[in-house]
Protein 1
Amino acid sequence: MDNQAHTIHCHECAANVRIEMLPPKHRVICPQCRYLLTAKRTNAVQKVALFSLTSLLFLLLSLPFEFISFSAAGKTQSISIPSGLAVLVSNQYLILAIIESFFILFIPAIVLGTVFYLSMSVLLNKRQPYHRRLTHMVFQLLPWSMAEIFLISVLVSLVKIISLADVSFGPSFFTFCAFVGFSTLTVVHLDEHEFRAITQALIKPRHKSRQKSINQTWGLLIVACLLYIPANLWPIMKTQFLGQSELSTILGGVYLLWESGSYPVAIIIFTASVVVPVVKLLILCWLNATVQHGIIKKPEQKMSWYRLTELIGKWSMVDVFVVAILVSLVQLGGTMSIYPGPAALAFSGVVIVTMFAAHSFDSKLLWKTDSR
């Protein structure tokens, strides 16, 4: 990005911030809402290109080899990531397979591939007219990339079954870890404003209808609340062990983990599956109500709460991924098998719908003093 005077539009509070020149290792923070508008890093584009390409290569390497293996009662089950998805499909859990594949494979691959393409185009000075749409797509898809959550879910899954069987990691597990690491580095060095500017993708702010934003957010929040009831009442997982079946709800699974002494994992599951969805729903309901009734007080504090909902929202997918991993891995016939319960889909709906609700809420309304 050229070091010429220009104006940065804050998409969170609609403030216009003019900067003359930004030296390396400096950043610009919105004086109104304290949002990080841009940060000047040395060789940022080169690093983004390198990290995104490396991450894509590790993602490809994590597909063909063994990811994890599971042995119990003389029987062994090993899976790769694609074969794990195939197990879900073959057992007629297609929706669960689609959710997992999109969030941990397709969306990250699309984001990283597009970022690498745009970065190389800039480095080679070959900008194209459609860079604007591609850049916009990247930042819209970033919140839906959940490879790091899947990795945490793998570790949580091990705690649940390690007392029942021997578990070992294959080569793909370590390449997947590398993929998550380099994709994280890509996002860290991907400055939204600078990336839009260098790709000639300066997007004009959209003026969203106040009432439309409020109504959409309420509608999505109501759907999420309705889904949250069966997500907690219905079983999320069914375990068959030596001919005996056991149904487990989300809270039931947390209780069993706590009773078995797995306190850290029980706390993680309880926080991700119970605390986070409830907190996010309450915060969004509160923010939407204050905007609807024109109660514009302490907008800085409300903006901090809104950012918290965006930060923590997708981590609730941990329990859903845990179920998908266990179902893919533990299929040993009558000895031991695990199946997803109806709550898995209901809880997936809660997470997805609340993420849409956070996106539909217009944070700029927190800074408007009129109620029109």
Protein 2
Amino acid sequence: MKIMLSALVALTLVGDLWAADADAAAVGREVHAKNQEAIVTIRLVVKSTMTLGGSARESESKIATVGTVIDPSGLTVVSLATMDPSVFARMVLRSMRQGISADSEFKDVRIVLADNTELPATIVLRDRDLDVAFVRPVEKPARALAAIDLTKAREPRLLDEIISLNRLGTVANRAVTVSLHRIDALIERPRPFYLPSPGGYSSGGSPVFGMDGAPIGIILIRSAPPDGETGMGSTPWSLGSLPVVPVIVPAADLIEVAKQALEAGR
């Protein structure tokens, strides 16, 4: 009798877990369908300059990264670290020796929409502390663009299940992925951000949603210069001895900076 009861309890628990997974998958599909067109590709031609003493060395590269449109005018949030090679280079070089500097010049910026339409764009604001850049079309789009309204965001709790979207590169025909995570940590200082569990295809510039479909924030890159400590606890992200980790920057923080970006764009 006890064996049968234990088996029945086990089957009930399995059934509950299966139902929860099915519910999460249904919500993920809904979030994907509703928001996928707001996930765009940002293409750039970047000229990088490294200066040592009085000698400068230049190189040019083509970069494609992910952006999230947050306003129908086309204002798009991008992770600065994923589009500007000098972000990490400055930190690494600063730890090595004096007299070395790195800078980037953006020669061509384009927003590539879901239907592969390319909009010439410009970078209207950069914030290295947040690791965020705002990109906007040079000319007003012919139609309002699909956008994610960050003003409808909510704050997550520890271990809440969350959903992230990401657009892949040309090797996967720029498909939009959907991934399930949880909130592993809530960081309060020096500024608030949330640490998502690893996994999926999330990258800098990807939006994150709660299980009610409301936006939570955007995944950006948190980094710190080498200070004698290596790694970031059990977090596997690192660039040499430079600890880096993808974090979710709350929508509330981005909204304030976005207001400045909208004014700068005008």
